[in-house]
Write a structure and sequence with these properties.
By secondary structure, the chain is an alpha+beta fold. It has helices at residues 2-30, 35-39; strands at residues 45-53, 56-62, 66-75, 78-88, 97-104, 110-118, 125-130, 133-135, 138-142, 145-152, 160-165, 171-177. It contains 2 helices and 12 strands, in the order ααββββββββββββ. This is DUF5590 domain-containing protein.
Length: 179
Protein backbone atom coordinates (compact mmCIF):
# COMPACT_ATOMS: atom_id res chain seq x y z
CA UNK A 1 0.00 0.00 0.00
CA UNK A 2 2.79 2.39 0.93
CA UNK A 3 4.54 1.69 -2.40
CA UNK A 4 1.39 2.64 -4.36
CA UNK A 5 1.25 6.03 -2.63
CA UNK A 6 4.97 6.48 -3.23
CA UNK A 7 4.57 5.80 -6.97
CA UNK A 8 1.54 8.10 -7.21
CA UNK A 9 3.49 10.80 -5.37
CA UNK A 10 6.43 10.40 -7.76
CA UNK A 11 4.11 10.51 -10.76
CA UNK A 12 2.36 13.63 -9.44
CA UNK A 13 5.71 15.35 -8.78
CA UNK A 14 6.90 14.42 -12.28
CA UNK A 15 3.74 15.86 -13.89
CA UNK A 16 4.03 19.07 -11.86
CA UNK A 17 7.72 19.41 -12.74
CA UNK A 18 6.94 18.82 -16.42
CA UNK A 19 4.19 21.47 -16.41
CA UNK A 20 6.46 23.99 -14.64
CA UNK A 21 9.33 23.25 -17.00
CA UNK A 22 7.13 23.69 -20.07
CA UNK A 23 5.45 26.86 -18.80
CA UNK A 24 8.34 28.74 -17.24
CA UNK A 25 11.52 27.44 -18.81
CA UNK A 26 10.76 25.91 -22.21
CA UNK A 27 8.39 28.61 -23.50
CA UNK A 28 10.19 31.53 -21.85
CA UNK A 29 13.85 30.71 -22.34
CA UNK A 30 14.28 27.94 -24.88
CA UNK A 31 11.75 28.20 -27.65
CA UNK A 32 10.23 31.16 -29.49
CA UNK A 33 7.14 29.88 -31.28
CA UNK A 34 6.96 32.91 -33.61
CA UNK A 35 9.39 35.38 -35.15
CA UNK A 36 7.75 38.15 -33.09
CA UNK A 37 8.54 36.22 -29.91
CA UNK A 38 12.22 36.22 -30.81
CA UNK A 39 12.14 40.05 -30.95
CA UNK A 40 10.51 40.42 -27.51
CA UNK A 41 13.92 39.98 -25.86
CA UNK A 42 15.41 42.87 -27.84
CA UNK A 43 15.46 46.44 -26.51
CA UNK A 44 12.79 48.63 -28.05
CA UNK A 45 9.32 48.14 -29.45
CA UNK A 46 8.64 45.69 -32.26
CA UNK A 47 7.41 47.70 -35.24
CA UNK A 48 7.29 45.15 -38.01
CA UNK A 49 7.85 41.48 -38.78
CA UNK A 50 7.74 40.50 -42.46
CA UNK A 51 7.76 36.85 -43.44
CA UNK A 52 10.20 36.14 -46.24
CA UNK A 53 9.32 32.45 -46.33
CA UNK A 54 8.32 29.76 -43.80
CA UNK A 55 11.69 29.76 -42.06
CA UNK A 56 12.91 33.34 -42.46
CA UNK A 57 11.55 36.73 -41.43
CA UNK A 58 12.71 40.33 -41.39
CA UNK A 59 12.05 42.29 -38.19
CA UNK A 60 12.25 45.97 -37.23
CA UNK A 61 12.44 47.29 -33.68
CA UNK A 62 12.08 50.98 -32.79
CA UNK A 63 14.50 52.26 -30.14
CA UNK A 64 15.10 55.69 -28.62
CA UNK A 65 18.24 56.08 -30.74
CA UNK A 66 16.85 54.81 -34.02
CA UNK A 67 15.90 51.51 -35.60
CA UNK A 68 17.32 47.98 -35.44
CA UNK A 69 16.61 45.44 -38.13
CA UNK A 70 16.89 41.72 -37.59
CA UNK A 71 17.30 38.62 -39.70
CA UNK A 72 15.10 36.03 -37.97
CA UNK A 73 15.32 32.31 -38.68
CA UNK A 74 13.43 29.28 -37.45
CA UNK A 75 15.53 26.37 -36.27
CA UNK A 76 15.00 23.30 -34.12
CA UNK A 77 14.33 25.28 -30.91
CA UNK A 78 12.10 27.90 -32.53
CA UNK A 79 12.79 31.38 -33.89
CA UNK A 80 16.07 33.19 -33.22
CA UNK A 81 17.97 36.30 -34.28
CA UNK A 82 20.58 35.39 -36.91
CA UNK A 83 21.96 38.89 -37.64
CA UNK A 84 21.14 42.53 -37.01
CA UNK A 85 21.91 46.07 -38.13
CA UNK A 86 21.25 49.51 -36.62
CA UNK A 87 20.59 52.93 -38.12
CA UNK A 88 20.37 56.05 -35.96
CA UNK A 89 17.45 58.40 -36.47
CA UNK A 90 19.45 61.34 -35.15
CA UNK A 91 20.51 63.61 -37.98
CA UNK A 92 22.80 66.61 -38.07
CA UNK A 93 23.32 68.67 -41.21
CA UNK A 94 22.18 65.79 -43.37
CA UNK A 95 18.45 65.13 -43.55
CA UNK A 96 18.95 61.35 -43.62
CA UNK A 97 21.11 58.67 -42.06
CA UNK A 98 21.73 55.99 -44.65
CA UNK A 99 23.26 52.54 -44.28
CA UNK A 100 23.82 49.87 -46.86
CA UNK A 101 24.38 46.56 -45.09
CA UNK A 102 24.56 42.87 -45.80
CA UNK A 103 22.58 40.74 -43.38
CA UNK A 104 23.04 37.00 -43.11
CA UNK A 105 20.08 34.70 -42.48
CA UNK A 106 21.65 31.28 -42.88
CA UNK A 107 25.12 30.00 -43.73
CA UNK A 108 25.33 31.45 -47.23
CA UNK A 109 21.98 33.22 -47.44
CA UNK A 110 22.75 36.94 -47.46
CA UNK A 111 20.48 39.83 -48.36
CA UNK A 112 21.51 43.39 -48.87
CA UNK A 113 19.46 45.99 -47.02
CA UNK A 114 19.27 49.73 -47.41
CA UNK A 115 18.27 51.54 -44.23
CA UNK A 116 17.31 55.20 -44.35
CA UNK A 117 16.33 56.99 -41.12
CA UNK A 118 15.29 60.57 -40.53
CA UNK A 119 14.09 62.74 -37.68
CA UNK A 120 13.49 65.70 -39.99
CA UNK A 121 9.77 66.53 -39.97
CA UNK A 122 10.06 68.16 -43.40
CA UNK A 123 10.90 64.81 -45.00
CA UNK A 124 7.64 63.05 -45.84
CA UNK A 125 8.75 60.82 -48.70
CA UNK A 126 11.98 59.03 -49.56
CA UNK A 127 12.68 57.36 -52.88
CA UNK A 128 15.57 55.13 -53.92
CA UNK A 129 16.81 54.25 -57.41
CA UNK A 130 19.15 51.58 -58.76
CA UNK A 131 20.19 52.15 -62.38
CA UNK A 132 17.27 54.60 -62.76
CA UNK A 133 14.81 51.89 -61.64
CA UNK A 134 12.90 52.78 -58.49
CA UNK A 135 13.44 50.52 -55.49
CA UNK A 136 10.29 49.76 -53.53
CA UNK A 137 10.90 51.18 -50.03
CA UNK A 138 8.85 50.24 -46.98
CA UNK A 139 8.30 52.81 -44.22
CA UNK A 140 8.25 52.37 -40.44
CA UNK A 141 7.04 55.52 -38.64
CA UNK A 142 8.10 56.32 -35.07
CA UNK A 143 6.65 59.58 -33.67
CA UNK A 144 8.49 62.33 -35.58
CA UNK A 145 11.05 59.86 -36.95
CA UNK A 146 10.81 57.36 -39.76
CA UNK A 147 12.84 54.58 -41.29
CA UNK A 148 12.61 53.53 -44.90
CA UNK A 149 14.09 50.21 -45.92
CA UNK A 150 14.47 47.79 -48.77
CA UNK A 151 16.09 44.40 -48.98
CA UNK A 152 16.70 41.95 -51.74
CA UNK A 153 18.38 38.62 -52.24
CA UNK A 154 20.60 39.83 -55.05
CA UNK A 155 23.00 42.55 -54.03
CA UNK A 156 22.16 46.00 -55.31
CA UNK A 157 24.35 46.59 -58.32
CA UNK A 158 26.63 49.59 -58.16
CA UNK A 159 25.30 52.89 -56.89
CA UNK A 160 21.94 53.61 -55.30
CA UNK A 161 20.50 57.13 -55.50
CA UNK A 162 18.46 58.34 -52.52
CA UNK A 163 16.10 61.32 -52.71
CA UNK A 164 14.07 62.95 -49.90
CA UNK A 165 11.00 65.06 -50.58
CA UNK A 166 8.78 67.49 -48.66
CA UNK A 167 4.99 67.19 -48.60
CA UNK A 168 4.77 69.61 -51.56
CA UNK A 169 7.09 67.27 -53.56
CA UNK A 170 10.10 69.60 -53.26
CA UNK A 171 13.44 67.77 -53.41
CA UNK A 172 15.14 68.34 -50.03
CA UNK A 173 18.09 66.00 -50.22
CA UNK A 174 19.80 63.83 -52.80
CA UNK A 175 22.77 61.53 -52.42
CA UNK A 176 24.35 58.46 -53.96
CA UNK A 177 25.56 55.51 -51.91
CA UNK A 178 28.05 53.06 -53.31
CA UNK A 179 28.78 49.48 -52.37
Amino acid sequence: MRKIYSNKYKLLMFVIALILFKSFIWEEFVVHPTASDALKEENGKTALVENINQKESFGVVKTKEGFKVYALVEDFWGWKVADEAFVSSKTTKKKLNIKRERIQWEDDYIKEVILIATADEDVVKVRAFENNNEINLSKVPNNHKAMYFAYQEDLFSGSVRIEAYSKDEKLLYKTIINQ
